[in-house]
Predict the 3D structure of the following.
Amino acid sequence: MQMTTDHLLANPCDDEEDNMAMLCCHTDQGEMFLMTRYPDEDELEITLDDEPSTLDGIKVTLSPTRLLIEIGAGDTDVLKGDDVLEISHNTAAADLAEVEETLQNILKGTGTYISELK
């Protein structure tokens, strides 16, 4: 599955939402992707077009222009039958550190984070 967005919105620790870490994006076609995790929970939540699912054991790779999310074969219903979601983005380089911190908070202890940032 593929999506394209202008930028990734990230919040590594939202004080108003019980310290939830949140990564979000919207496409020009109105699609929405949201990945969240509360610090006291063992699983993360992915919402794709208003359909939330809880997961663990995912792998996320961040590069300056791409976010690649890989899930287990048993969870493909989350991504409408796919086991990979590739999000092309144009996030400003200055904002990528916050995206990276958010992904690290979301995936800590429940997934794998790979950075392709330089």
Summary: The longest strand covers residues 20-26.
